[in-house]
Task: structure prediction
Amino acid sequence: EADIYQTPRYLVIGTGKKITLECSQTMGHDKMYWYQQDPGMELHLIHYSYGVNSTEKGDLSSESTVSRIRTEHFPLTLESARPSHTSQYLCASSDRYGRNYGYTFGSGTRLTVV
Amino acid sequence: AQRVTQPEKLLSVFKGAPVELKCNYSYSGSPELFWYVQYSRQRLQLLLRHISRESIKGFTADLNKGETSFHLKKPFAQEEDSAMYYCAHLRAAGNKLTFGGGTRVLVKP
Result:
């Protein structure tokens, strides 16, 4: 079934560790996005990609980095996790135009840095 | 700054009562607007697109360019409508979605 998958669902990790949040979609979408969301707050775009080898920073400055080596895969990496990175991270994808069907979101990764 | 504003953080209504979630935007031109919903323990999902003028789960949303609003309405709320609702605008430049702060709807029996 075509969908978008995020792993892990929950992650608790110590300060200073390197982490990678995985996001994969089987929908054949060109565009992929990462949003950051604190509990009960709005979603902020932190990274987006229009296709392979295309990545851009979003509206909210983030210390994370992303890569897009394959169309279906858009991982997010934090080289050195800090407590300020504690948040929920949502991955999404859309077709070329976005306006037709909006975005499809993954289930999210809730990250806690202790 | 271009923004999407949802003035109500929480709406609490009784089952069978009407519910209206407010959304205002500050973009010029022809906006592309959406409503997303997140039920408890489920992922964020698309509820309505303004371009389709559809009614989903009894919800409708009308774009009012004069008031720059895209309010979501349902005449008779059900308990299963309890969820978090987000209004969003799709920016033409880059196809990027900007979200409002969200409104939590609680439908009491």
Chain B touches chain A through 23 residues (CB under 8 Å). Residues 4-108 of chain B form a domain with the Immunoglobulin-like fold (CATH 2.60.40.10).
